[in-house]
Amino acid sequence: MAQFFEIHPDNPQRRLIQQAVAIIDRGGVVIYPTDSSYALGCHIGDKTAMERIQRIRRTDKDHHFTLVCSDLSEIGTYAKVSNTDYRLMKGLTPGPYTFLLKATSVVPRRLMNPKRKTIGVRVPDNNIVRALLLELGQPIMSSTLIPAGGRRPLDDAQEIRETYEHDVDLVIDGGYCGIEPTTVVSLIDGFPEVLRHGKGDVSFLE
To answer: How many angstroms separate the CA atoms of 125 and 110, rounded?
Structure first.
């Protein structure tokens, strides 16, 4: 049975943040709010937890996870960022964008695109996520909470609790955070290419 924490979206309670991070450190799978939708998350180094998320989402082994990072400097540890990439991302983060970049050797191979050796990274504009990452000290391996066979994320924490209370270790209720996916921008080929139009504005490319 999953634990259920109601965490204030503006002033996250440190005690609950610490408990949530302890669950992640122990190999737990958590559901948490971001600036675009609720997401599933786990420790970056935990293969078993990653496989649990794949079973929950009913995805194949090539499903792309995203590394949710605290800031651009942390992204630089896990992805190869050029000066041009950095300037672009600096103007868009924190925010509802996922960037595809070449992965560094720090990233476990199971998280990379098997052919292009790329990884998705993002810095959400959400106080709960920010507090979790600060306490954890590293990225959260993440996947949008879309029900198996569904097309849109769930947005009600009580419904999420009822649906997944036997599948995850913790559900964090951070209030309504939306159901629109992030905008996905590829920076792999030396120029920005929008692969998915989502919540993040793309007028900067016009």
So the answer is: 27
